[in-house]
Amino acid sequence: MKLSVIGCVGAVVLVIVAMLVGLLSTLDDLESTGATQRQAGAWNRNSLEVERGIVALEAWARTETVTRGHADKTVFRLACEELERRIDKLVATSEPWQRPELEEVRRLVDAYVTEHVTPLLARQSVKSRAEAPEASAEGTRRLTAMNTLLVSQERRQRVLVAERYAESTRLRTRLGNVAKGGAMGAVALLFVFAFGAWRFALVPIRGVADSAGEVARGRLDVRAPTTGAGEVRRLGEAFNAMAAALETRDEDLRVQTDRLHGLMEHTSATVSVKDLEGRYVLVNRQWREASHLVDADVIGRTDAELFPADMVPEVMESDRQTALATAPVEFERDIIDGRTFRMIKFALRDPDGAVYGIATMGTDVTELKRVAAEAVAASESKSEFLANMSHEIRTPLNGVIGMTELLLDTELTPLQRDYATTAGTAGEALLQVVNDVLDFSKIEAGKLELDASDFDLRTAVEDACDLLAPQAHSKGLKLRAWMDSDVPNYVNGDRGRITQVLINLLSNAVKFTETGEVLVRVVNDGDRVRFAVRDTGIGIARNVQSTLFEAFTQAESSTTRRFGGTGLGLAISGRLVALMGGGIDIDSREGEGSTFAFAVRFDVATTQPPVPVTLPAGTRVLVVERDATNRAILEAHVRATGARVDAVPSLTSLPVDAYDAVVLDATLWSQGKAISVPVVPVQGPVRHRRLVEALRDAIDGVRPDEPSAPANVPERAPQSVDPILVVEDNAVNQRVIEAMLIQRGHRVEIAHNGRVALDMLAETRYALIFMDCQMPEMDGYAATAAIRAGDLPARTMPIVAMTANAIRGDRERCLAVGMDDYLTKPLRPEALDAALDHWLPEPLESAPASAPLERLIDDARVQLLRTQFGAAFGEFVSLFGSSTPPILADLRAAAATEDRDRVRRVAHSLKGACMNVGADALARFALDLERAQHASEEELDALDQLFEQTHASLAAA
Q1: Which residues carry this modification: 4-aspartylphosphate (predicted)?
Q2: N- to C-terminal Cα distance for the chain?
């Protein structure tokens, strides 16, 4: 086919080229003939002009002859010049064979002018009228010769023109014949080409086109004819291959569509697709059922045509937002029958990113929400149950622990003290179990929140170590804490939770370590603080380390039987650290020990940190400690005060007398008794502030162990003359809080429920109210609300909640009804002291030293001491009488040297001794001196006199 087309086209081209060549040749001949004819015409015109010029010249000559020189000479000259130009023009348009004769004409003209006309001008030839005819005849003869030549030329020119005209006619005839023959040949060839194209190209292509139309109408099994040749045949074959591929893909698409339709019809989710005009193009059965449009014609219709008008704007706005969004949009929607669907709506985009539709999928979450609500209710019920159980357990625990602490403050035999200590320890252990269960429950329920505040990080670490120190020492373990100097001391975070995690890790370390040491290391880790608790205990197998942070899990059951415990400590610690943005890492090897480390980020403290305790400038301290780690820790503590420090493993290393004080390992105390400089014995873990204060007191010569009442009684002066009201229904708890407040020098009144408290408040003014939350008749919440809403003077009194509940929300509930603070049972002495310090009014300024004091002793305090100590109270008063005069003398000496710091410390020691025995007035006087940090002679004399009066009153009490 391809060769036939090329041959046919080539023949047509050859015919056309031949025709064009013939036409061009004929045209060239015609052009040549035409040029010759045009040249002959120009020659004839120029010849005629020359003849006219000669005639004009002859006419002038005759005029000149007749007029004998009176003709215009200028006309003659112009005629000569014009004739010359015409002859030149005639020569230019003549053929080469004509030019010799034309040159002869030029010669004759020149001779005529020179030999005939010029003499006439000079009047040399014609002398008289008789000569004129002869001159005229001469001129005529000469003109006849020139005309003869010109006529001869013209005759030959006419013959030539006639011949060329005949040639032109012949060429025109030939040109017509060539054009006709070429046109007829080209038409014949084109006809042959057209027939071949129709037969071998158009018919097969039309067949392909017809087949394409059938395929377009959906008949993918139709095939095109392949009867053509060459490219046409290949076109048909390519079309058939394409149709076969389309048929295969259509079948695959049908199968996939059937599968998709099956999935859509059997999925639990609703599916719908809309175009940009909001018309539905695809929905499944579930969508129809959920929309209550099972039998409706949905496809091609919009929301406005299918749903109530009040729903349409919201849906349209949702579609618009989805088309603009780059991510799927999720939301919940309630439908007509009350069910709730979780919807996911997203835009459908083409490969260029243009949106062409909106797809929506919905899942019925009604049952899930019901189950979730039931789970939340169950969790809340569990939390409520745990809160109630906690309250029921904490209430008797408060009595057990509180009474045990009060019992330990009395004079007991060693066996009795051992029994009381064991009971207190058991109560604390039970309380810890309750706290662990509650914490884990709160974590599971997502109700545990961090309570951030500014705190001293070093003190928090030392508190945790102090709590575990007795247990560690009883096992012969060394418990130590090391905090790098670049770690910030004062930070903002949840002090209680940090301490709780450290206690849990330390407790495990001490529990699972039989020999060696437990070390707490605190270092700066970039923007975090890293804590590490390392022990030399039994270690943990690698295959069980991953389960340590699961609830109620320990390394193995034998460990549980041997060491006990609930297995909640690490689980709680891990989740607490996670709440603070960290995680606990484990590095442990069986038989070598373990290291538990975690890093948390603290915020910068916003309040001013306490003023650090320092030693006088230039102080030199010697640290004597056999253990290298302890020696480094002690050296760091002392060096932080600005003192110069040396550390040695034994006393024999350096001369002791060169130092202001010696920090000595308590196990080396026998060696230190012979030392002449002050000695501060230490036994780990060492608290920084306590060590520095002990060093300062030792250097100043202040005795740190002034005699006093039993050690556990706090040194606290009463801060108000008004009594404190305790609203508590449990008799044991009443006795505990009453005793704790009396120990602190306060008068206490008891109300056994909220209604009784309201009656008492109507009659008496109180300095502070401690309010239990759960009581019969009227609980603490209702009582507080009534106090805040009433017109009683107690409306502005501070109210501190006391509750055995420990679930999140209790504190918020107490504060919401108007309470000012919140304490959990069992009441801790330090928490109670903090509440008293915060909410009681400032102490009244004492009267001048010379003024009489209204009350020398606190009768309630003295009565409590007499009840507790019995006959030993007299010995206690005698001890007070003999130990106080040296303190007064020391105070007088400090005042004489104007040592303000020493005055403050000695006055503080005197205040504590007075408060312990109920010497209220003397304690207030000592408090004034402590604040003033100086004492005049009159004040010291009044102080001596007041001591004598107080001692007498105590002896008589």
Answers
A1: 772
A2: 141
Crossing angle of the two packed helices 203-216 and 231-266, in degrees rounded to 10: 0
Nearest 5°: CA angle at 496, between 493 and 500? 120
Give the Cα separation of 585 and 605 in Å (integer): 27
**53 within domain boundaries:** yes
What is the domain extent for residue 277?
Answer: 267-364
Report the SS3 class of residue 840: coil
User: 662-698 burial by CB neighbour count: b if 16+ within 10 A, else e?
Assistant: bbbbeebeeebeebebbbbebebbbbbeebbbbbbbb
Name the amino acid, one letter, at 865.
L
Q: Which residues contact 242 (CB under 8 A, 6 or more apart)?
A: none
In a domain, 207, yes or no: no
Contacts 24+ apart (CB under 8 A), 36-42: 36/160, 36/164, 37/161, 37/164, 37/165, 37/168, 39/93, 39/95, 40/157, 40/160, 40/161, 40/164, 41/161, 42/93
What ranges in 840-936 are assigned the alpha helix state H? 859-869, 872-896, 900-917, 920-932
Query: What's phi and psi for 805, nearest 5 deg?
Result: -75, 150
pLDDT of residue 703: 45
Q: Buried b vs exposed e over 268-293: b needs ≥16 C-beta within 10 Å?
A: ebbbbbbbeebbbebbbebbbebbeb
Question: pLDDT tens-digit profile of 268-310?
Answer: 788 889 998 999 988 888 888 888 888 788 889 998 988 888 8
**Cα separations (Å) of 758 from 149, 735, 750, 768, 838?**
167, 21, 12, 14, 24
* 876: in domain: yes
Query: Residues 580, 663: one domain?
Result: no
The one-letter code for the residue type at 301 is: R
pLDDT digits (tens, 9 = 90+) for 910-935: 876 777 677 878 888 888 888 788 88
Q: Is 424 a member of any domain?
A: no
How many other C-beta atoms are found inside a 10 Å radius of the C-beta of residue 515? 10
CB 797 within 8 A of CB 766: yes
Spatial contact of 580 and 494, defined as CB atoms under 8 Å apart? yes
Q: In terms of DSSP H, where are the helices of 68-131?
A: 73-92, 99-111, 118-122
pTM of the model: 0.46
Placement of tokens 């849906």 in the chain: 315
Q: Which residues, including other chains, have CB under 8 Å from residue 834's CB and lie 6 or more apart?
A: none
Locate 346 and state its tokens.
């997203």
Q: Which amino acid is at 159?
A: V
Q: Which two tokens stand for residue 586?
A: 């484990």
- Using an 8 Å Cβ cutoff, are 953 and 922 in contact? no
Distance CA 669, CA 544 (A): 45
Report helix, strand or coil for 492: strand
At position 356, the amino acid (one-letter code) is: Y
Local structure of 529: helix, strand or coil:
strand
| End residue of a domain, out of 324, 339, 364 | 364
**Residue 245 parent element (H or E):** helix 231-266
CA dihedral 942→946→948→949, nearest 10 degrees, is 140
Which of 311, 342, 364 corresponds to the end of one domain? Answer: 364
Q: Quick one: how many helices (H) and strands (E) in the chain?
A: 29, 22
Model confidence pLDDT, tens digit, residues 784-827: 999 988 776 678 889 999 886 656 567 788 888 999 998 887 78
Residues 684 and 580 in one domain: no
In 3D, which of 590, 532, 585 has the Cα closest to residue 556? Answer: 590
State whether 358 and 311 are in the same domain.
Answer: yes
Tokens of 290: 């959920």
CB 910 within 8 A of CB 888: yes
pLDDT digits (tens, 9 = 90+) for 713-737: 444 444 456 789 999 987 777 878 8
By CB neighbour count within 10 A (0-12 exposed, 13-18 middle, 19+ buried), where does 114 fall? exposed
Q: Print the SS3 string covering 349-368.
A: ECCCCCEEEEEEEEEECHHH
Q: Which of 530, 464, 520 is nearest to 497 (CA)?
A: 464
Dump strand ranges (E) for 723-833.
724-727, 748-751, 768-772, 799-803, 821-824
